[in-house]
Request: fold
Amino acid sequence: MDIGLAGQYVLNGLMLGIIYAMVAVGFTLFFGVLDIIKFSHGDVLTVGAFTALAAYAGVTALGLQSPWLILGVIALAAIAGTAVLGALIARFLIMPMRGAPPINVLLLTLMLGTALRESVRLFYPNGSNPKMFPRLLPGGAANFGRFTLRYDSVLIFVAGVAVIVGVSLLINRSKLGLAIRAVAQDAETARVMGIDLEAVVLFTFALGSALAALAGVMNGMYYSEINFNMGLLLGLIGFSAAIIGGLGNIYGAILGGFLFAALQTIGAVLLPVSSAYKDVFAFAAVIVLMAWRPTGLIAEKSSERV
Amino acid sequence: MSGRLAVENVFAGYDRTDVLTDVSLVAEPGRITCILGSNGSGKSTLIRAILGLTPPRTGRIVFNGHDLAGRDTHQIIRAGIACIPEGRKVFSRLTVAENLRLGAYQAGNEVARERMARVYGIFPRLAERAGQFTGTMSGGEQAMVSIGRGLMAAPKLLLIDEPSLGLSPLFVKENFSVIRRIQELGITVLLVEQNVRQTLAIAHYGYVLMQGRVVASGTAAELVENEEVRQAYFGDGVRPA
Amino acid sequence: MGALRWGVGSVATVAVYAALFLYAEAQSVVIGLLVGAVVAMVMASRFDVLARVGESFARHERALDRLTFAACIAVAALFHDQHFVLLMLATVLLYFVACIGLNLQFGHTGVVNFAGAAFFGVGAYAAAVLSQHTPVPHLAIIVIAGAVAAVIGSVLIIPVLRTRGHYAAMVTIAFGVLFKTFLEVNDTLGGPQGLKLPGMSVFGIPFNANIALSDDAEISFYMHYVVLALLLAAGAYSLSRRIERSWIGLNLDAVRLDETACATFGIDVARWKIVAYTIGNALCGIAGAVYAMMTGFIAPNNFTFGDSLIMVSIILLGGVGNPRGVMIAAAVVLLLPEKLQMIQEYRFLLYAVLVMAVLLFRPEGLLPRRLRAYFPGGTS
Amino acid sequence: MTAPLLVCRGLTMRFGGLTALDALDLDVLPGEILGLIGPNGSGKTTFFNVVTGVYAATAGSAVFAGADLTRLTAQAIYRAGITRTFQRSRLALPLSIFDNLMIGNHRRLDHGLAFNLFRRVALKAQYESAVDEARTLLATFSVPLATRLFEPASAVTMIDRRRIEICRALISRPKLLLLDEPSAGMTHEETRELMDDILLVRGRMPGLGIILIEHEMNVIERVTDRCAVFNYGKRIAAGTYAEVAADRDVQQAYLGQE
Reply:
């Protein structure tokens, strides 16, 4: 295989990795503050992408021309819409389940995901068909032999890195981030420090959901298409990524995101039969990884009192 | 009236059973009030009730003239109460500086910086280790972090839950002298302890808790002589050696 | 004291209701019946009828089990010439068998499995391959398909044993997705188009031929499958009951409730998880094999993650750990969208919301499991 | 003097930097009730967890009936005849009282698949004798409780739950019983009743050694033959209650330095 093709695979892997990492960070944030898996996260991503699409229809109807302005408006709409959705889910569905067995919460969010997905399919106009996602980024590409570098991909990748760096700065440097980390370690002591637990939880869910929305928009721009089902697989991959990284650890989630993308890419390149097996290979590798490190690569905090 | 806490006829507990039955006590401003009792006497539940973590079923808790009923923990903290919890409860995966910053969570950055400087003055050791993860420190150092974190809130009332638990005698001694200095800063202290002699040596007034009830109270001098105190720890009928 | 008549009355009522429901065609009648059922349930719980029925079932278990079996036959006989109704009945019974398996894993032992539909699919594909390419007798195929599901499941045993909670859930979800993706891209197994199967033939009886009663009366060929599915359901039910009512059932419960306490009292957590997991997957595989041969056609889309979720919903709605509840939930979940066309499109949304409501407001399910009675009919 | 049941020498348990048990020496004799006392965090429950195999000791040995426990799994230790109760009740609350007892009876029941699924008559015989045994044992503690064998454990009061937990530990006829603060969360009156029960059990099961963690000194005084005092993971005193209570180190541990 020549360098150009290899480069193409690496680029492709990085694009997927950044999107997966953004989804996985959400999973790990939710797990951090409430010790729960919010499986509906992938479908919140779908809602985000469709919100952006709806906003696009709205702003073009209003006659907005500038692609950058449009992009800004629809991204904001997606972020705002899903942030509110995420906070509402936390407040009315997940907080009331505190103290319930973790598996019940997982089931609840699995079902919530189904409900969101079905709602998009049923209630978005013609929602069961794939939708074209508008091309708002400059087209064009640079060619190096068999290696094509699309400019919009570069922009998407840079935006993804910027968002992730931003989130990790927020978590690691800001006072609110400090509160989130404190709640993640020991919610009760965090309350004793004067932290308003509910406010922190709601903010975290809003933040994670906004990340998902951005990932959804980026995904739409990368493939120029979205559909009601996109969140299911993306959510599952994000969940896997968060788990193989080690739940509750933001760097683990990022690592897991890129690792999963790498597994898929390796599967596509190396499998002798057909690249169609790449997802099979990636999920099988995840299962093997779980057998080897049952709580992920960067182990989760855990202790049981007897 | 700054920092006066009154617990009035409080019943509190978990799962339908009361751990505290009809507990009443007062922590006078600017003084060290202690709660003595053996394991399982309800001391920790009392602290939780005051902090709103296990709200009382009945009875009132009044701080500075305000009834704390119905307030969430962060609102109670805002009223001027802070706590150094049992077992220290430092955030082990956060640095010393971050732990201290959390102690003054409700204060602004500027104020927090000033207070942090003051805490570093009391515990120079913490200043040396500001960037270290707390989990990698010794038990004694973690105790300093926990106390420092409690001071960061600049509270009117500080609840201290078993500061000597699991510490070597040397650190216990040091801790008690620090508590003395805290009181000298004008902070009301409610100290929960099993270590009777050292506690009574620094406390002004004390209550003895046994199986969720106040069985004795008095000045430190009175309690030193009190038979109930001995009984709470050594049962009936045993005289000191 | 639970008089026998309460139990008999309830079985008869449910059977008559089921017959009416299956008979109803007009949407207004179906809706009327549904409203009637809801009102009846509210009244029944209000006037303590449910408690009495439950008591009656506890005391006269064996008699009422037989009566239930007979009632199933009676309902099927009533619709003996209607292909579609019998197909639905058999499907409900086969889902019941699979859900009993998942219930043993999750409801009893606490081992989560979000790949129920995948193991169902393993059985179905095993049956398809065996019936197309080998002369193995069809009854043996069912058994082999169950074994294949158990063996493929055992690939997951190490991660399932080593992980807990979310991590274990992740492993089974990943397996379910992996399985479906594998089927879609694998050309020898038919790819997305799936595979066709011949109908069953047992002891020389071709299952896919109608049975002539007289010159102008026939019994639908689906009756064969209904009878087979009913026998399997009875077998799975009885197996589940026997496991529950033995020291094994106790071990499974202990594993679910407190693994540390188990270790303290010598209970081998890994062993019982493996037992429950293997039996459960085998039941899914068996049900899948019969389902495949009955429908004559299978494709990856029959075995999606969504279908696994439906199975979990059935267990949860029915009452975790309670096989009777599973039976009723399976019937409701599978029949409702078939009869009520207007909700067909909305069924996933509807179930999702329903299960969320159950989780939030009645987490023990609609018919919660009762205490274990090792030997039914009374406590010595 | 009879040979001790349990011999611990230099038993040490470290968690990271924390030494929870520090070179502990302790013997338990058959038929005695040994009280274990010490301030919070002094290592009593850790000692139980090491002896029952929940944790593996960092160093030292605990020899029970000729076998070194520190090499055995929790399951093997149970089969060798050591059972326990937990500080916070760990009953299976949704299950019946009988089921809870049978969890403790594991080593005396037949767990073969074929036996349980197909030999229902033999199973019934085993079941019936187990029911009788469970009822008799429960009746030693409380006659009314023995009639409620098939009610859920969640339906009974705190003291009855403690009784069930003790019966669960006793029904397999262990040689050594570890009781971790059985009186926690109970009133004076209930504690007194429960201790009477424990004395009664000791009378009926000669040779059974009991280690009792307890913070109430009058209870220790009343029911124990000997006691050992822990502080910072070390055994600082051992002997009869009167000896121990008079010990200067003990007074210091509890009351602090003068």
